[in-house]
Write a structure and sequence with these properties.
This protein is α+β, with helices and mostly antiparallel strands. The chain has 24 helices and 16 strands. A 5-stranded antiparallel β-sheet has the order 1-2-3-4-5. The chain has a 5-stranded mixed β-sheet with strand order 13-12-14-15-16, sandwiched between helices. The longest helix has 28 residues.
């Protein structure tokens, strides 16, 4: 979003990155930079770096990076305009927005207000005569009045236009109701309420905005649960039910449940760390969001086949996000809600403390697939168990779980260890071979680490990186650079050069931070990595070398056949001379 450059310059100046980041991360100075534990992934040694002089942050572990606006976008789960508004409010600045973007934000605000008013309507209906059946269901599920109020539960009447009529009377348009996903358009062009005869669960984002709804039917209609569709304010892949409450928990973990009722029941029994996905399987976006608020996730999916499959899918995604994963198994109940009602909070707390780590869970799940009284199945179980044990990172883990697998199959640990060691050697050999291939191809190590960004001309790109680092440190040198953005081999680096030139033309100091609205998060992360590389001495000679390489590579790739021959002849003549 093109906020005025002068405003962005003032915004970043009034929000020093070390001050903003310091409100979320404990930073320690090491030389000119500050370091701390990354807030975006789990780590024990601080690899998160803040460079106050450059106005950027970068994590050498998870490769996230950018300026102060990017940091707020990431840490607060805000889009670019809202991150700018967040920082403007922090600095006491008024946000100057042109009409087109103001109207977009106003549209979002209207939908937030509409969903909030819809939630109020559903809540009033719950306590009206029409909500009697829903109140009876709530009583049957043993939900307290406090829980009903805390989660804003409501009821959608079994009518075609109850919400439609109520909201239009409040001044909302039919188009706004469609945009919010609260009504559906019929084939004949009419519209009617999406949610009818359902217990309603407002979905609230981390800023407290109602962004959508889930509804549980009160009769035998299908689907049993119906969720709001994707809208400009609701993305089910990027939101989790009850995270607005769970993000503030004092518990050392977040409990991930399969449905709304499980999450609500856990909160009612004192476990305010429970969340649920919104009618979709767990996604990488969900895992990354969870990693912002906790280091450990406990999975409490149902024990049926579908729940076990969901658990197996979730484990690698959560671990990839740097989370420690545990799995809770329940005996005598199919889900947390039923367990809590049968056995109470103390028994669940004990169960939570005894939850298995992912290795225990995977090994036990594997064991259950085989009849270990049959020799052929025992052999196959041990083969697969050896492959599983080989994935574990420490020798202690491999021994512990290797022994468990051997005991389960009734074989000696020595035999199991031989098989597991073979599997481990195969894996390490493959990893070593892969790393050697990378090490033997130095050009590959120079390529950007961010997916989707690639340098087609490494020689020119390295010079382009060096030039940008140089002018960022010494902006006065820009006047000596006779390069156009299109002469850069990397389109991304060319865009940054163009932006720096535009900033300088407007009397501003070249900076990466104001570009958060023009560049994607991956591009900002890569540029942060570029500017975090060790500084080489700033000199006229180095700058001339960068310019010469960029110009030479541009001329080489854009010259015609005859021009290339003339250039080659000229270079040969210079060499002989």
């Amino acid at each position: 979003m093109p906020f005025p450059p002068a405003f962005l310059d003032e915004l970043t100046a009034r929000n020093p990155i070390e001050d903003v980041v310091g409100q979320y991360v404990t930073l320690t100075r090491k030389g000119s930079n500050l370091f701390g534990l990354c807030p975006f992934h789990s780590e024990k040694t601080g690899s998160f770096s803040v460079a106050p002089d450059k106005g950027i942050y970068y994590c050498f572990g998870c490769h996230k990076g950018g300026g102060v606006i990017n940091f707020i976008m990431e840490i607060e789960s805000l889009d670019y305009p809202d991150a700018v508004r967040f920082l403007a409010k922090r600095a006491g600045l008024e946000v100057p927005e042109d009409e087109s973007y103001r109207s977009t934000y106003r549209r979002q605000e209207r939908l937030w207000a509409l969903c909030r008013d819809a939630a109020r309507f559903f809540r009033s209906e719950l306590f009206s005569p029409r909500g009697e059946e829903a109140r009876a269901y709530i009583a049957k599920r043993a939900l307290s009045q406090q829980t009903v109020v805390r989660f804003g539960l409501g009821f959608s009447p079994n009518e075609w236009s109850a919400l439609l009529d109520a909201m239009t009377q409040k001044g909302y348009t039919r188009q706004e109701l469609l945009d919010a996903g609260l009504v559906v358009k019929s084939q004949k062009g009419g519209i009617y309420d999406r949610f009818r005869n359902r217990l309603m669960f407002p979905i609230i984002d981390i800023r407290g905005n109602v962004i959508g709804f889930g509804g549980r039917v009160m009769d035998d209609s299908t689907p049993k649960y119906l969720n709001s569709p994707e809208t400009i304010i609701f993305n089910k892949r990027k939101n989790l039910f009850a995270l607005n409450i769970a993000r503030k928990t004092k518990h050392p973990c977040i409990i991930l449940t399969e449905g709304y009722m499980d999450a609500i029941a856990l909160h009612q029994y004192g476990f305010d760390c429970a969340v649920a996905s919104l009618g979709t399987s767990l996604t990488e976006e969900h895992a990354n969001i969870l990693a912002k608020y906790t280091q450990q996730v406990v999975l409490t999916y149902d024990g049926d086949e579908a729940g076990q499959n969901a658990t197996q899918r979730a484990i690698p995604m959560l671990e990839k996000a740097g989370l420690q994963v545990k799995v809770l198994r329940m005996q005598g109940a199919k889900d947390p809600d039923e367990f809590l009602k049968k056995y109470g909070a103390d028994r669940f707390s004990l169960l939570l403390d005894q939850s298995e780590n992912q290795a225990e869970y995977r090994l036990e799940s594997l064991r259950r697939k085989f009849d270990l009284t049959q020799d052929e199945q025992r052999v196959e179980f041990l083969r697969q168990a050896a492959e599983l044990v080989a994935t574990l990172s420490t020798a202690v883990e491999r021994e512990v779980y290797g022994r468990r697998a051997a005991e389960a199959a009734g074989v000696s640990y020595e035999a199991m260890k031989l098989e597991a060691d073979r599997a481990y050697r195969r894996r390490t050999a493959q990893a070593k071979k892969k790393q050697e291939a990378i090490d033997l191809a130095p050009a590959r190590t120079l390529q950007p680490q961010i997916k989707g960004i690639r340098y087609d001309n490494l020689r020119s790109a390295m010079a382009e990186e060096g030039l940008l680092r140089t002018v960022l440190r010494e902006p006065a040198l820009m006047s000596a650079v006779p390069l156009r953005p299109d002469q850069f081999s990397s389109p991304l680096l060319g865009r940054v050069w163009a932006a720096f030139c535009a900033q300088r033309a407007q009397g501003q100091t070249p900076s990466l931070a104001p570009l958060a609205g023009e560049l994607e998060s991956g591009e900002m992360a890569h540029l942060s990595a570029v500017f975090q590389k060790p500084n080489t001495p700033v000199s006229d000679d180095a700058l001339r070398d960068y310019i010469a390489i960029i110009t030479e590579e541009y001329d080489r790739t854009h010259a015609s056949g005859s021009e290339k021959l003339l250039a080659l002849a000229a270079r040969k003549k210079e060499t002989k001379g």
